[in-house]
Amino acid sequence: MSKVNLKALSTSDLLLLFEKLCVEQYNALDRQEYAAFNRRYDRIQAIEDELKSRPGDQRRILMTLFGHPNMQVRLTAARANLAVDYPASRREIQDIADSKWGPQCLDAGMTLINLDNGIYRPS
């Protein structure tokens, strides 16, 4: 995977790249290719950081992915927005936890526990 200059991409291009990487993460997880999953994690985090650094904190655009048919896309977008719109993001994470669509439902459940216990503090 080649490095992409995220600063040069439009917000909508970042949204598409975010979605693509999350789907690739889902597929890697399904194939138990954990190294491939983790490589995409770092790139997804870089996109979140870039969106956060833009005027007005542009992570909000990721909320358009709430309800996405791919659970990894939904979960990652919801976690990225906890600091932006906590109630909406928490509802999305709760919906994923309630879905019983593993392993994302387990990850969502742990996110909720960590939020409730103050272990995870969105920024």
What do you see in this structure?
The chain is mainly alpha-helical and about 120 residues long. The chain is globular and about 40 Å long. It is built from 5 helices and no strands. The longest helix is centred in the first third of the chain and has 20 residues, at about 10-30. Helix 1 runs antiparallel to helix 2, helix 3 (about 70-80) runs antiparallel to helix 4 (about 85-100) and helix 4 (about 85-100) packs across helix 5. The chain is about 65% helix and about 0% strand.
- Give the biggest sheet: none
Measured by DSSP, the beta-strand proportion falls in: under 5%
Q: What is the subunit organization of this protein?
A: single chain
**Unreliably modeled segments:** none
Gross morphology is globular
Average residue-wise pLDDT = 95
Approximate helicity band: 55-70%
Strand runs, count: 0
Q: Ends: how far apart?
A: 28 Å
Q: Please provide the ordered H/E string of secondary-structure elements.
A: HHHHH
Notable traits:
single chain, mainly alpha, 5 helices
Secondary structure elements and pairings:
Layout (H helix, E strand, L loop, with lengths): L10 H20 L3 H20 L17 H10 L5 H14 L4 H13 L7
